[in-house]
Amino acid sequence: MRLYKFIEKEFLAGFFTDGSIRIGTIYNFKDTVEHGLSRGDQSEGKHHLIRGIDGTVSLSKDKHEPIISEVFKMEGDGKAQISNLSIIVPRRCEDGFVFCTSYIYNENLFRRWHQENGVDSCYEITNPKAFIAAVSCKIKNSAKFFVNSNVTYTEKNIDYQSAHANSHPAFTKVRDDYGWQYENRSVWGAKGPCGALRPWVIHVPEAREYCKPFSFLENGEVNYAGV
Question: Which of the 8 DSSP states describes residue 191?
Fold first, then answer.
C-alpha cells in the first residue's frame, strides 16, 4: 500500500527541505472555521449508535438491553415497557495526535481537494510503515503510536448491530459528507498527564527517504514529478 498527502506547495517544499511535518490533533479538527468543511468536522472523535424499537421491550434491573440500558436505569423490583421509538447514544474517543493522508490517488480526487482547500501539490509515501516508524521515533518522548488505519465511512447514526458498531471513533466519518476523501490516518496517544493537546510541527528528515514528490496542479493542469 502507498499513501498520498495532498498539500500546499510551500509545505511540500518544507518537508523535502528539512523534513517538517504538521501533526494535528483529533479535537482540533472539530474547528470548521480554522479547517473548513472538508478538513474540519464537528463530530471528530465521536459517532452515534442507534437502536430502533419497532415492537415492545420489557425492562428490569436484571435484564440488560443493548443501548436501551445505557439510557433507562432500572432499580429495585421496578419494571417498564418501551415501544416504537429509536434510542441514540454517543461513542467518543480521547484526543490524540493524527496525521492524515489518502489511500488512493487519482486526478479527480486531487482536483476536489484543490477545489475544497486550494491544495496544489501531492507527495507519495512509498513505504508507509517505515514513514510512520520514523515519525513515531521522533515523538517517542511525548506520544506513543496507537494505530494506522483507513477511515470507515458510515451512516450518520450507526446501527448498533452493524459491522461498524465497534469501530473506534477516531476512525469513523459520515459517508455522505466525507466519503469522497478515501482517508487514511495514523494516530498517536499523548504520554503522561498533560493539558489540552495542540497541533505541532516536527522535523523528521529521516522520513523523506520513504516519500517522493508526486504531482502538482498548475494552471488547471496536473503535472507529475520527473515527467
Answer: P
> 20 is written with which cell numbers?
517538517
Task: Identify the residue with better confidence: 34 or 110.
Answer: 110
How far is residue 127's CA from residue 133's CA, in Å, rounded to a whole number? 10
> Is 0.85 topped by the overall pTM?
yes
Average pLDDT over the chain reads 94
Beta-carbon contacts of 106 under 8 Å, excluding residues fewer than 6 positions away, are none
CA distance 27 to 44: 6
The bridge status of strand 121-125 relative to strand 211-218 is antiparallel
pLDDT tens profile 180-196: 999 999 999 999 777 89
Percent of the chain exceeding pLDDT 90 equals 80
All structural domains of the chain with their residue ranges: 3-45+93-224, 52-91
DSSP E strands in the chain: the ranges are 3-7, 20-25, 46-60, 79-92, 97-102, 121-125, 143-150, 152-154, 157-159, 172-174, 183-190, 200-203, 211-218, 221-224
